[in-house]
Write a structure and sequence with these properties.
571 residues; mainly alpha; Na+/H+ antiporter like fold; Rossmann fold; 6-stranded parallel beta sheet; 24 helices; 6 strands; 71% helix
Amino acid sequence: MHAPAYLGPLALIFLAALGAAYVLHRLRQPPLIGFIVAGALLGPYGLGLVREVRVVEGLAELGVVLLLFTVGLELSIGSLRRLGKIVWISGPIQVAGTIALVVGVSYAAGETLPRGLFFGYLVALSSTAIVLKLLVDRREVDSPHGRFLVGVLLLQDLAVVPMLISLNALSGRGGSGALSAFGALATTAVTAAALFGAARFAFPRFIGALAGTRQKEIFVVAVLFLVLGSAVATSWAGVSAALGAFLAGLALSDSEYGHQALADIGGFRDAFSAIFFVSIGMLFDYRAIAAQPVAVAILLALILVGKTLAGGAAVLALGYPLRVAAVVGVSLAQIGEFSFILLRQGLADGLVAPDVYRRFLAAAIVTMLATPFLSGASHALGRTVAAASARAGGPAKDPLRDHVVIVGFGHMGETVARLLNRAGVPFRVIDLDPDRVRRGRKRGVSIEYGDASNDAVLRRVGVESAVAAVVVLSDLRSTRQTVRHCRTLHPGLFILARTRYLADIPALAAAGADEVVAEEFESSLEIAGRTLSRLGLPLPWVEAETAEIRESRQDGFRKFREPGGVEKSKP
């Protein structure tokens, strides 16, 4: 019996992807980069081990369908509301600003407006998968730049839908002129809205009826049917199959079955998404770079610089400092995975010539491969521009002595400030969220706008004459930098830092913190104490036991904190 022709290449693809992803993981880089590299090596322009790219592309399209379905599931009214201004102000500024820049450059190069808009679509989108993976690995999702990146990427995912809808109008299929283009766009939009409305009403009831069987297999098959059925239905209606999958996910996102559907479909999505990124790598043609290296280099520079400027402007529009703007702008400078979907469709619709397609594809893949390195360098760039900006801020307005400096005015910083105020202890607060600064000043809090990871900002609030500094930032990188500057400016200062994880304590201790409060440790003690009290154990015994555990943790911290390996004596 002969095996099907696609099994050999598919097994080879998974083997190469697995090996490359493992190596990239050991190098602390996203595995998606490994998938792209594996595809470039296996494909017809690499070693040529897999020549039937069409078979791979068919499976990759299924990966795109599943990917967009999960994007729809992860989008909800609640998530949009939490990010607020970032999604609805910064996101459109980044997307519209990038498109406007690309349209201007394209028009200057002699391209038509529809093609300029199409190229703008391609460049405006960034890689959600790569950027979010970097944020999670570096524990920066809750940092100021992390929240901006999540919000802008969320808006970009939403923008994919109207971009897909408008491709028919841009390509001029079904007629010519503005009226025909508007008619095509309106028809597609109405079709998508009708399908979404039907899905919103019918899908939760359909899934609910099958979930009542309490059979996981039935539930998983039902979800897969909804994904593929929606994709087929939108294809029949003349709309992208990926758009149909997105609408199906969005229809289920706010239902009680959305989280379970996301969990059950996750394995399929990850496997086929890996094939999708491998297929992108297989499209990489080094000959496009070798034939016109200058043209590809110029295109690459325009993409990186233009996207950095547009992303940075989106941050500055909300009043955040240059450091955050630099990190966000550089982190968004790559081409996204959904851009490849649009690019293929554009090639089929005649919106892009084959030679331009190959050059853009090569440049786009290079931006994705460079993202981890550019993202790491963005922090150094951010510190440089922040230092220059802070030096222009001048000295402190009213120097204090023997006060407390609070860095961060979130829930923790606000609580510390309230207690210090009740105790009559003078304090100064630093925060780089302009909304928090405005709210604090309305309540009479002595709060300064600025980035505390820069020593000039710390000088402005008089850290050199303070008695203590409380650093309660959500960004470990900024916390470490702030602690280091506080220790340098005032060697005798008492520094208390907050972090989420116990594993972060050594880094903060090495930076100069006297005490570190790890949220997971304190939360575990609180949970254990309440559980024991609920079980009827005497409260004094519970408090004594938790105090002993906390003291043992502090002993270990003191041993680490003392330089030269000498243990500090207990106070």
